[in-house]
Structure formats: structure tokens, C-alpha cells
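Subgroup meeting minutes
Present: P.N., E.W., G.H.
Scribe: E.W.

1. P.N. recapped why we're keeping a running log of single-chain structure predictions: easier to compare across weeks, and new members can see raw inputs and outputs side by side.
2. G.H. added today's entry (270 aa).
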Amino acid sequence: MELQGFGFTVLSFCMMVLLVLYKCSNTVKYYVKYLIYTACVMIAAMLFIPYFCFRPKNVENLLIYAEVLKHLTSVLGIKWTLRGAEHLNKNKSFVIVANHQTCLDIMDIWNVIKLMTAIAKKELLYAGTFGPAAYLAGLVFIDRNSSKGKEAMNMAMEKLKQDNIKLWVFPEGTRRSTGEIHQFKKGAFHTAIQYQIPIVPVVYSSYNHFLDHKQKVFGEGEVIINALPEISTKGLTVKDIDELMEHTKQRMDIVFRKISAEAAANLKDN
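Output recorded in log:
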């Protein structure tokens, strides 16, 4: 009994020290928040895998997964503000292109779009329990360093168009938190033109006013998500890809600067 009491005392002391450090140290708070998020993603994946096995590759599985994780980001201190939802919840297939800054992207708006899947790099398929769960939930994994990547996307698009499912793509190719939208890759635009389906740009405001990876700061703040009116690809050919990419990026750049400044100003006002 005395040993158990001593162990409880030590555990309580350690928890108090961690709590003090969490409150006083930005670095500790940064790592604790990411640890909580990563652990919850993996645990949720592990719990959902058996259920997903009963309806494998069903994109509605992703909706369930995202709905659970959406509430987690609120606990982490992130407020999401969605604008332009009417451009996302249409009953037809289209390609959504969005800027990509953190692993927190997407989660809050999946329930608005509902029938949707996303493109992910093949390496994520082997990321703990998340990879198998995402595969069973209908995520499309591609090898970006192989010519087969475009072929895999096209094969997936056949099924998605038939079932009015949306395809979410991060055209920058990887996460970047530099405060700007980087050059796009052609894959998403090639697919949209090939299947003559619209492109819907989605812009996330910068996280930099409360999340700084270099300084190890993860505070509380707002992310504004702005869905823009669709861009038609009707009548376009592969010769129009560069112009379509540039037009889309210019529209997103303007909105990105505007909503990033607004989100930062809202944080200061609070």
C-alpha cells in the first residue's frame, strides 16, 4: 500500500510539473498538442479499422473519421470559420484544390462536402494505423515519383465521377507554412480537364499567427476557410492547363492574403 501511495504521489507531482511547463513554455505546449493530435489520429484509426472492413473503400468512412477529429482540433484551440459552403455541398463531382500548410487541414469541412475523397502520397499508406484506416476509407494513394501516379488518379476519377464524389487535391504537393501559396503541380488540373469537371478552389488562411514550427509555438487562433465559385473546364484541352493553373492560383493568392490578414487581426482584437 505504501509503495502504491508513493507511486501515486510521484505521478501526481509529474503531472503538476507537466501542467506548469505546458502553461509556461511555448515549446512544451507545442509538442504536447502535436503529441495529443497524433495519438488521437492513430487511436481513432485503430478503433475504426474493424468497422471500415465491413464496407471497405467506402468514402463515407472518411466522413465518420473526420467528424471525430474535427472536435479534437477545437480542444487544441483552433477556431474554424467556413465561407462559401454553398460551393462545396453540390450533388456532383468536381476537383477541389486547396493550399496545404499543416496536417490539420481538411478536418473541419468534410461534413459539409460529405461524399469526398482525397489524394495522398503513397508513403502515408505505411504511417502506423492511419494508413490502413485511410485506405479502407477510400483515400487514393499515389506515387508522385512514378508515371503511374497520374494513371492511378485517372482510374480513381472514373469511379468518383460516376458516383458524384468530390476529389480533394493539394496541388502544391506538400505542406508548407511559409505564409504564401507555392507553385502548383499539374495533376489535379489535368484530371479536371480530362473528365470535363469543374475545379473548386478552397483557401485556408495562414496559421502563422498562432502556429510557428520554427519557434515551436502552438497557441490558440482562427483559421478562415474560403471556398470560391467553381471554375469550369468545359471545352478546355491539355493545352490550357498552364493558363488554368495560373488563373486558379491568382484567385487563391488574392483571397489568401485577405483572409490571412483578417484572421491575424481577429486574434489581436481578442
